[in-house]
């Protein structure tokens, strides 16, 4: 008698363990199958996580077992590796296993039975007839190349569709449906690379191609150093060896050029995976990956769960981007999952960035992962000079505009010459704190050395760690200046200012409000690159991977606003934004200049961005992380309560606080309880407690108990945003 362990589709604490059921005689059930099982008074859907013979030690607790009712799909929907990954995720990210499994399956595969993978194989029968016609031509091709997949054949020769039908009718070709148990990739007929790699690129490609299975790499290369070309060439080898490759990008809509490069190199062998796909497109791509019809996928983070048959390589492009962290359950980080897959399945992982996350840079420097650097830009192009403007001086000298004189001059010159400019605004950090325009200081908590956050609804400044609350001051506590205010200048303000200073200028605005759909993003890119506008004003969403050859000025309006956020990654993010934004110019034949406006220009994140010095930045930032025990030196756990009743939310967070105070003895720092920086969201009051320290079994036990008992509490491991 065989027993199946089944995780049922109920998200309730206590029900999230694997339940045992008897597999009826003759029912084919394997790990990863979906099944219906009796549960309580009714029945429920579940996923099989283990199958074993009754009587083995595992089954000791199985007393009287009910049978599985039926199997949903002819083949398992998840591989054994994915089942194991789900278990790991449940533990690591404190979620229900079923949440992990659901995240791995596209919606309509979740809802419907799923077909077995089959392929249509075209094969000749009989003898050559020898007549000069299209029919004969196709017959000859099939005879010579052996049985070919219909899909692949028609992809290669779409004009032969009718001819193939005729041959089948004639009886000289047959099409068989076969179970595609073994991988069969389309022949990747890509265009070969038009480039000869430079020495650094060549070294990168050979090193990674020849590396052991499961190896992990940081490919650290300045913008324009040819990282994408390196990915392309490694992938060429991977697919030639019959393996699949996955290229992850932070956001498909924001990286149209990268996507196009993969498509033009590998054509139909490339599938896309992103949030604008319809349910049926999703299901189709999912199956095509499983059946081996797609050799390469370019996609966003959830593509990491696609059912690859034999994944040889995972690339995380712009690996530092926060979109690789999922904010909802299961709150996984794509990099962690990629590393897990590397260890488990031998897939190689390449993390690419000009500005790696501190974690990745640290692992590379410690030798925990491989480290390859590309230090030169392709061709003769150089990184643009960066000029830092101290906005306090501008004020002292009577310039009250949000644009410094240097930026005004540079933009005027560019516009006169018919060149383009980009103005960046760092959206994070606006209007949430109070800053002095004279000395550049933000108002701080006297107890916690974090910036106080402005709460508009109550017109108060509040510390999110200790609750310290004051009325917004009318004069600067540092220098007494009255030019103190909460900081705010949205993209609209900047557009207005541009129109005022340069009447008649054609301005495009790009932020979350103006760009809601993928279409409008392409439109915007197209409009700007084709010079239907002179100035582009936008937030960080336009700072990534786009080439604008006619841009000769990049202005960063207030580079340091985000340095005051209560966020331990604030310096890292500011540095990354500045470097990425600078990379938007100097890409064509124009030399280009970058003007960085700041109120606290001496900050190392700004200084090192100006010299494009990642090492400088890293060396200072890593010291700060080490001293304060932030990642990569310790973990963070954000315990957050959200409740429609403020009273209840407070009670709960205090109860949770009591449960974690014991951890302080073992060196875990417990911060809070305090209201979340966004204290009320969608009518729910939010409070949090932050834990900081080295991960150990005791902490994990306490946390999983809290996760189990406190229904309104959610726990995020190493949160990206604490807002
Ligand atoms: P990155 O991804 O590091 O920003 P890319 O791979 O996009 O760099 O390369 C920058 C530009 O240089 C692209 O236009 C690319 O087509 C071109 N390029 C890359 N490698 C080479 C090479 N070996 N020879 C000539 N041009 C190259
Ligand atoms: Zn001041
Ligand atoms: Zn405080």
Automatic annotation (TrEMBL):
Please indicate if the UniProt record lists Metal-binding as a keyword. Answer: yes
Q: Which CDD domains match?
A: DEXHc_priA, SF2_C_priA
Which cofactors go with this protein?
A: Zn(2+)
Domain Helicase ATP-binding, residue spans: 208-374
Output one GO MF annotation.
ATP binding
Q: How is the cofactor bound?
A: Binds 2 zinc ions per subunit.
Supply the alphabetized keyword list.
ATP-binding, DNA replication, DNA-binding, Helicase, Hydrolase, Isomerase, Metal-binding, Nucleotide-binding, Primosome, Zinc
E.C. designation(s): 5.6.2.4
Q: Which chemical reaction does it catalyze?
A: Couples ATP hydrolysis with the unwinding of duplex DNA by translocating in the 3'-5' direction; ATP + H2O = ADP + phosphate + H(+)
Set out the biological process GO terms recorded for this chain's protein: DNA recombination; DNA replication initiation; DNA replication, synthesis of primer; double-strand break repair
Binding-site residues for Zn(2+) 2, renumbered to this chain: 445, 448, 463, 466
Annotated Gene Ontology cellular component terms: primosome complex
* Entry binding sites for Zn(2+) 1: 436, 439, 476, 479
Q: Which Pfam families match?
A: DEAD, Helicase_C, PriA_3primeBD, PriA_C, Zn_ribbon_PriA
Q: How does it assemble?
A: Component of the replication restart primosome.
**Family to which this protein belongs:** Belongs to the helicase family. PriA subfamily.
- Function, as annotated: Initiates the restart of stalled replication forks, which reloads the replicative helicase on sites other than the origin of replication. Recognizes and binds to abandoned replication forks and remodels them to uncover a helicase loading site. Promotes assembly of the primosome at these replication forks.
* PANTHER family associated with the record: PRIMOSOMAL PROTEIN N (PTHR30580:SF0)
| Descriptive protein name | Replication restart protein PriA
């Amino acid at each position: 008698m065989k027993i199946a362990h089944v995780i049922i589709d109920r998200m309730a604490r206590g029900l999230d363990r694997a339940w045992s059921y008897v597999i009826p005689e003759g029912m084919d059930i394997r790990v990863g199958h979906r099944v219906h099982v009796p549960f309580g008074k009714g029945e429920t859907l579940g996923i099989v996580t283990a199958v074993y013979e009754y009587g083995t030690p595992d089954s000791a607790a199985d007393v009287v077992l009910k049978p599985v009712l039926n199997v949903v799909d002819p083949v398992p929907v998840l591989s054994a590796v994915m089942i194991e990954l789900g278990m790991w995720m449940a533990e690591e990210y404190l979620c229900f296993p079923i949440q992990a499994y659901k995240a791995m399956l596209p919606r309509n595969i979740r809802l419907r039975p799923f077909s077995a993978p089959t392929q249509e194989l075209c094969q000749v029968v009989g003898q050559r007839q020898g007549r000069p016609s299209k029919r004969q031509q196709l017959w000859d091709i099939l005879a010579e190349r052996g049985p070919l997949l219909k899909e692949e054949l028609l992809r290669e020769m779409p004009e032969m569709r009718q001819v193939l039908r005729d041959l089948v009718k004639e009886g000289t070709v047959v099409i068989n449906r076969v179970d595609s148990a073994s991988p069969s990739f389309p022949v990747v007929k890509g265009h070969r690379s038009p480039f000869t790699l430079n020495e650094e690129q060549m070294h990168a490609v050979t090193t990674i191609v020849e590396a052991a299975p499961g190896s992990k790499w940081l490919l650290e290369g300045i913008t324009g150093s040819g990282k994408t070309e390196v990915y392309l060439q490694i992938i060429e080898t991977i697919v030639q060896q019959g393996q699949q490759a996955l290229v992850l990008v932070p956001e498909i809509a924001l990286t149209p050029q990268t996507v196009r490069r993969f498509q033009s190199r590998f054509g139909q062998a490339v599938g896309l995976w992103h949030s604008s796909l319809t349910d049926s497109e999703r299901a189709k791509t999912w199956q095509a990956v499983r059946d081996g019809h797609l050799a390469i996928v370019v996609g966003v983070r959830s593509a990491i769960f696609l059912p690859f048959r034999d994944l040889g390589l995972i690339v995380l492009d712009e690996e530092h981007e926060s979109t690789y962290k999922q904010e909802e359950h299961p709150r996984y980080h794509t990099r962690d999952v990629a590393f897990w897959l590397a260890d488990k399945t031998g897939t190689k992982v390449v993390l690419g960035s000009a500005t790696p996350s501190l974690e990745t840079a640290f692992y590379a420097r410690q030798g925990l992962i491989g480290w390859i650097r590309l230090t030169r830009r392709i061709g003769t192009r150089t990184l643009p000079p960066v000029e830092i403007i101290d906005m306090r001086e501008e004020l002292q000298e009577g310039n009250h505009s949000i644009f410094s004189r240097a930026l005004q001059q540079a933009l005027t010159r560019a516009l006169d010459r018919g060149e383009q400019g980009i103005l960046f605004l760092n959206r994070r950090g606006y209007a949430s704190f109070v800053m002095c325009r004279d000395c550049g200081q933000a108002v701080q908590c006297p107890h916690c050395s974090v910036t106080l956050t402005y709460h508009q609804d109550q017109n108060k400044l509040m510390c999110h760690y200790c609750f310290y609350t004051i009325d917004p001051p009318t004069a600067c506590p540092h220098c007494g200046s009255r030019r103190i205010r909460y900081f705010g200048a949205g993209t609209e303000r900047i557009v207005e200012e541009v129109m005022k200073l340069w009447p008649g200028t054609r301005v495009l605005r790009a932020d979350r409000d103006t760009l809601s759909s993928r279409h409008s993003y392409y439109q915007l890119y197209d409009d700007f690159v084709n010079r239907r506008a002179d100035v582009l004003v936008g937030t960080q969403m336009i700072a990534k991977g786009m080439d604008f050859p006619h841009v000769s000025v990049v202005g960063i309006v207030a580079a340091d606003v985000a340095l005051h956020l209560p966020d331990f990654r604030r310096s890292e993010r500011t540095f990354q934004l500045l470097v990425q934004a600078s990379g938007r110019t100097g890409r064509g034949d124009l030399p280009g200049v970058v003007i960085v406006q700041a109120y606290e220009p001496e900050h190392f994140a700004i200084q090192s961005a100006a010299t494009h010095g990642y090492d400088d930045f890293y060396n200072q930032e890593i010291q700060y992380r080490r001293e304060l025990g932030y990642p990569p030196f310790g973990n963070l756990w954000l315990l957050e309560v959200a409740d429609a009743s403020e009273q209840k939310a407070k009670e709960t967070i205090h109860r949770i606080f009591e449960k974690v105070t014991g951890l302080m003895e073992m060196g875990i720092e417990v911060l809070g309880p305090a209201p979340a920086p966004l204290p009320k969201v969608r009518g729910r009051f939010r409070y949090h407690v932050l834990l900081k320290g080295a991960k150990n079994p005791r902490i994990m036990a306490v946390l999983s108990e809290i996760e189990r008992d406190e229904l309104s509490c959610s726990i995020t491991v190493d949160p990206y945003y604490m807002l």
